[in-house]
Every structure is written in structure tokens, then in C-alpha cells.
Amino acid sequence: MARLTALEIGPDGETLYRAVLRQPGLALERHRAVLGWSLPQVSAALEELRAHRLVRVSGETGLIADHPRAALERVVSAQEAQLATRRQELARVRDAIDAFVSDYVAGQTLSTTTLPSREHVEAGDVAATYEHLLAATAGEVRCCGVSPAGPGVAAQLAAGRSVRWLHSATDGPVDPGDFDLRIAAVLPTRFVCFGVDVALTAAEWGSPDRDFVVLRDPVVVAAFVELFDRLWATAAPMAGTSDSLTTGVLELMRQGLKDEAIARAQGVSLRTVRRRIADLMAEHGVDTRFQLALKLIERESTDDG
Question: Signal sequence: where (predicted)?
Fold first, then answer.
């Protein structure tokens, strides 16, 4: 495994460096022959080392390297100093964000420009558009088939903004993180609702990994909000505790998922799912899954009554 990539020294550069440390004084041509490299390959590796002054070239003594503890400590210290300076510069930018936000809000308030009701977003710009809409809107965020994770979402959660996330069982297990996550057997398409003002959805219904569109028509956005809430009501909670696992297993059973798919969706083993189903069958005094389903329907009818 290459260890010097953080210094922008690739595997070839590291190989040559170790060769010089082990055999000091050999000429570059001799190292090239031993390593079996071409002249351009060994020359490129040497330039990486010379850029950090890890290797010196002498016509009389060949390639020489200083003691690596001193040489690498010097390079690492210089890189750390540059990193500290860069962090200070970035901190100043972060401190100025509120001022730029004020300018943006003032511009939006005074602007007479009407945003388009439909705006195309290329696949490579979807993440940036998501972050922009997250910062520019208010209200609950509803993510259907789209991970809500991103650089700006942590601050939104810390500020108390609600984020709900629907994940398809067919997409495999997922880490819920700090989000309110539920699992659905299948999702009709991918979209995100930002409050009740804007929706970001796949440009082609049900199509994965393609362009998106931003929708601002209130009626259209309201339809997406309603669709999400209906899907949410029938989805299974992500397993966290024993009770939530039981609830999740039951919900996914109702949706027709097989044991293997339920296990993947809940992030547990197949054995755990089957044991939980067996426990439920014993609890309700039945011998088959069909009988269990009937018992559960009967119990729900009694609860509703």
C-alpha cells in the first residue's frame, strides 16, 4: 500500500525512494535497470521525490537520500503548516457566510424575477441543487428514494428542521443516521419535497440515475407531498429496537416481501427475521404465516372498532 500519496508521491515515486534508501549512490540508469522501468517512468518518479527534496542527484555519487526521519518530518511539518493556514482561510469564509446570506435574501426580496415553474437539472448538478434548495426553503423535508445526507443537512437538523426519509427495500440496507427513516417495498419514483414550496424529482418517472427537475407549481408540489405522506403511512419503521423491528417486519410482510428482502431492508440477518416471525406465530397461537396475517387483520379490525 502506497504511504506517500498524501504528499502527491505515487507508488512509483515511493518505490524509487525505498530503492535509493536501500542502495544509496546508484545512478538513475542503474535504478531504472534494476526496477525494469522505462526512462520516462523512472524520470517521473524522480521528479516527484525531487519536488520535496527527498532525493538529491549527483554526477559523482548518483542518487542520495537524507535520513528519512529528518526529511519526511520536514515535509510533513511544511504540509501541516500549509493546512493550518488553509483552515484559517476557510474559517474566515465560513464567518462571512451570514453576510452573503443577507445579500441573497435582500436580492430575493427586491427581485421582480419570477422563478420558472419547471427547471431542468443535469445529473451532475443534482447534489448542488439539493443543497441550494435545502438552504433556500423552510418546512419539513420529505425524501423519497433520495438520501437526505449532505454537507448542509446537519445544520438544518441541529436547527430543528424535520427530515423524513423513505428508502426502498430493493435498494438494500442503509444507515438511518439521525434521520427519521422508513422502508417501503417499492417506491414509484425518486423525489424530495422542501416544505410545500418546491419539489425536486426525477425528470423521467421511476427512472434511476438520470436528470432531475425542480418543480415550483403549488398544485404539483402539493401532489408530491400527498404522495409522500401516503407512502409513509404504509412504510415500515427502520429496525432500531425490538419493538420497531417487529413493526417493520409486519409492515413489510403485509407488502408482500419475502424473508430475504425483509432482512436486507431492516439491516438484520435472515435468521433474525425468521425467528421474529416464529415468535409472532407462537404469540398468536398460529402455525402458518397466512394464519398470522389473518390474526393481525382481525386485531387491527378490533382496534379500529
Answer: none
